[in-house]
Specification:
Elements: H1 8-25, H2 32-39, H3 43-48, H4 53-63, H5 66-76, H6 80-103
Helix pairs in contact: 1-6, 5-6
Length: 105
Amino acid sequence: MTLPVVNNPAVLASGVVIFILGGIWYSPVLFAKRWVALIGKSEVELEVSAGSMPLDGALCWLRFAGATSYGTALFSGKRKALWLIDSGFNLVSFIVAGVILTLWR
């Protein structure tokens, strides 16, 4: 069995595009106000808790796929709309990365 060849520049480009997409997705242009309202915190509270972002990033990575995060959301009482915004970002970013990796050969 041979391992597939990985196009490292395409993987890097996908990561950069997903980073930019995240900045737009969670900005006031799209879902920032609704997301802040759904998590039940003020913008001031989020600024104060910004020091825990590395821990938050690890938790986001841990959830990785919509199916597992939905189960968690159900049992934790998380609003469905909040789950849809967060999981929608993952879905769109996976699709964008897939398109980049498919087309960049």
